[in-house]
Amino acid sequence: MSALRIAMWSGPRNISTAMMRAWENRPDCVVSDEPLYAAYLARTGLDHPGAAAVIAAGETDWRHVVEALASGPVPDGAPIWYQKHMSHHLLPEMDHDWIHGLANVFLVRDPIEVVASYLQSRATVAPEDIGLLQQDRLHAELTAAGATPPVIDAADFLQAPEAHLRALCERLGIAFSTRMLAWPAGPRDSDGIWAPYWYDSVWKSTGFERPRPREIGLAPAARAVAEACRPAYERLHALRLRP
């Protein structure tokens, strides 16, 4: 039987890396961490933390990347290949045909939360940086083609991780594993070379943590970015899994 290739489409500063930990902790699953990142940075020239190292270590031709993701050998011959993607890494010139053959899932988070977290590591933010606009377009494209991918809202998920993971596994046609709920702390060989800049909290984690209420104050320009993404978020949020 051919492997299940899962593409999880997220934006930055979501729970995407913790979600990758959950899947990697399954004995039947291998993971790939943002395989289009090097191609994205090489094409855009954006000054992300560690950009030169990311480009040097990765494949910068997106065509080679997607060929491997869609039809190349599965690492270690695993039954499940979990591919963690940032939706803003899909640049306009990138073909989407390969995506339609994957088991696609969307992970969203309120844009106010995303922008506030993003600005802890970057000086500026634009609507295109946080992925929701791209997620909205891609989800609509896949739905129009006859496959409506499941959507997970991070805030809802963290209130009930096991229920959401069970529901998602059922949608994907695979068995749930309790190993998805907890993992050893520390880095992984599968982490991208950019991990030291972004993964500090995940390296300290041993499972999903319930969200803590907090006051978020954004400057007017940052709040405008969040509000520009809100319609896209609301459309996806309305489609979220509700186990």
TrEMBL record:
Coiled coil: none
Keyword Hydrolase listed: yes
Entries under Pfam families matching the protein: Sulfotransfer_5
Biological processes, Gene Ontology terms: carboxylic acid metabolic process
Source taxon at top rank: Bacteria
Gene Ontology MF terms in the entry: hydrolase activity
Keywords associated with the record: Hydrolase
Family: Belongs to the class-IV pyridoxal-phosphate-dependent aminotransferase family.
Protein known as: HAD family hydrolase
